[in-house]
Description:
This protein is of the alpha/beta class and 219 residues long. The chain has one domain (36-213): HUPs (Rossmann fold), CATH 3.40.50.620. Helix content is 31%, strand content 16%. It has nine helices and eight strands. The protein has helices spanning 4-8, 43-55, 80-90, 101-105, 110-120, 144-150, 162-165, 169-173, 207-213, and strands spanning 17-18, 24-25, 30-36, 60-65, 96-99, 125-131, 153-156, 195-198. Helix 3 (80-90) links the parallel strand 4 (60-65) and strand 5 (96-99). Residues 1-10, 12-26 and 209-214 have low confidence and may be disordered.
Amino acid sequence: MIPLKRHKRALFNPQPQKRATGQIFIRGKRIGLFGGSFNPAHEGHLHISSEALKKLNVDEIWWLISPQNPLKTVEGMASFETRMETARNLCKHPALKVSDYEKHAKTYYTVDTIKNLLKQYPHNRFVWIMGADNLKYFIRWYQWKEIFKLLPIAIFDRQPYAGSACSTIPLQRFKRWRVPERASTKLVFYRSPAWVFLHCRLHNASASAIRKKYNHNLF
């Protein structure tokens, strides 16, 4: 694990501005990006989002609903409109925003979505949020190394992946840039690459298990 002292030198140095009251603030928002098919959105997504708000100290979390995950088949995938609707019905916290950004931006790959967002919102600070279960297939994501270099990444423990997550190819490739968990509230200000593995209370909700339980007749 890279020492915290060394990582401090890699911190992004935002230019603070003073309000009339003398309060120091940073222009723009701190945004957590949580992408996925959300087929369907469930309590596990809410659990990770709630933990992310606390552990990452972000202002908002955007649920980026994918029109079609390139690594998943169309079979068994609810329509985009239905997945958007069910996510909105579940997502009531004011800091959680359900977004159809990828559909309107016509971005097929996560790396392109991130590049677009960084260009469109240059004054915001972004962090990518993902569950540890995604690490198994992360090397199949288009330009996955570039994703690590574009913005900090927060990886949340997911049962039963905690024991093997840090031995996966992506985290081994970028192990020098691991941020200590105690510094997670500052992750959004780290220069990329930077990632943190976050332990939290596990939630056993699974979209695939939910679909199987209802025999895919969810919608």
